[in-house]
Write a structure and sequence with these properties.
alpha+beta, 2 domains, about 20% strand
Length: about 130
């Protein structure tokens, strides 16, 4: 993954001087996509709905919560099925090619502040904020 300057991150005042902050967007070194991170896909949403349905069926089959551990079984099954989607895995990855290797350099030599290269809206890109100096 590389980073390229894409926007203004505001500014901070330190001892009377103003320091501008630059927003750098993260992109994939391999394919150049800015579609990075863990976002809910259609497949993940389907698995979450299936787990909620199974837990609901179990909860209603227990008849008014007679079993003291019924809520634990329901919650545990939801967490287990959702974990199969990969939501709880650590680290970021490219949602286009699956690359997980990061660098903090502009490897593909993208032009700074050129938002035409973005393949996702600017608002949902992964950003890092650094001062100008």
């Amino acid at each position: 993954m590389g980073i390229v300057a894409m926007g203004d991150g505001g500014s901070i005042k330190v001892e009377g001087s103003t320091i501008p902050i630059i927003a750098y967007c993260l992109y994939c070194d391999k394919c150049g996509s800015f579609n990075i991170g863990k976002r809910l896909t259609r497949k993940m949403i389907i698995w979450i709905l299936i787990s909620a349905f199974i837990s609901t069926l179990f909860w209603f089959s227990v008849k008014d919560g007679v079993s003291p551990g019924a809520w634990l079984v329901c919650f545990g099954s939801i967490v287990l099925i959702i974990s199969f989607t990969g939501v709880f895995t650590r680290g970021l990855k490219c949602n286009k090619c699956g690359n997980r290797h990061f660098t903090k350099n502009n490897i593909l030599n993208y032009q700074d502040y050129d938002r035409s290269i973005l393949d996702v809206p600017y608002e949902i890109t992964i950003k890092y904020y650094y001062d100008e100096y």
